[in-house]
Specification:
Layout (H helix, E strand, L loop, with lengths): L13 E5 L9 E3 L3 E5 L12 E3 L4 E3 L5 E5 L10 E8 L13 E5 L11 E5 L3 E3 L3 E9 L13 E10 L5 E11 L5 E7 L2 E2 L1
Parallel strand pairs: 6-15
Antiparallel strand pairs: 1-3, 2-4, 5-10, 6-9, 7-8, 7-11, 11-12, 12-13, 13-14
């Protein structure tokens, strides 16, 4: 912190210090604007202020983390569904999460999804209250339908939350493909979408 000293005040005097202005900016607050004390002979009277920098939460918009499902070899069956999940990486198990950690893609009862058709999905918004780097893993949940091979692909989402130094933050997401559909590790490959 910073200090300022005033000497030569007579014993018995009363001192009052007031912090004026915007206390550092719109994102700063002070525990009190005025502090007062008595001046005693041979002693130091300290009048203190604590300024606090506060960040507003920021939100990674819904759809910033997205993916798709493609079924090959046959058309989708009526009511057939596939579920995808996002989980906090082990390095940050307490990372903020979207309201729903799973998304399910379901073929309408009219059976309109066809062989080779790409069906998109997206995860919801995530709110962040502190700057930092947050990582997530996106995968397809393995089902039990006979004769159907579920994707073993894996994607890593890295969300970077930056302090803009004005009380606000900005969140951006980058997607990387780390395993293919056969669950084989591949060199990290940048991706726009988690495609299964």
């Amino acid at each position: 912190g910073e200090t300022a000293a005033v000497s030569g005040l007579p014993a018995g005097a009363k001192a009052t210090v007031t912090q004026t202005g915007d206390h550092g900016g719109a994102c700063w607050s002070v525990n009190h604007e005025t502090d007062a004390g008595d001046i005693a002979s041979g002693q130091i009277t300290e009048l203190g202020f604590v300024n606090t920098y506060k960040l507003d939460p920021t939100t990674l918009a819904a759809g910033s983390i997205k993916g798709s499902k493609t079924l090959t070899g046959r058309d989708w069956q009526q009511g057939e569904l596939f579920t995808f999940q996002i989980a906090a990486d082990g390095a940050n198990p307490d990372a903020p999460m979207p309201n729903l950690a799973t998304v399910t893609v379901t073929n309408p009862n009219t059976g309109e999804y066809k062989d080779g058709q790409t069906i998109p999905f997206e995860f919801g918004a995530i709110e962040y209250r502190a700057p930092g780097t947050y990582q997530y893993v996106v995968t397809e949940q393995t089902g039990s339908k006979p004769g159907l091979q579920y994707s073993g692909a894996q994607y890593i989402v890295t969300v970077t939350v930056r302090d803009n130094n004005n009380g606000t933050m900005t969140a951006t997401a980058v997607l990387t493909n780390t395993c293919n559909d056969n669950k084989e590790h591949i060199d990290d490959k940048p991706a726009d979408s988690a495609d299964f």
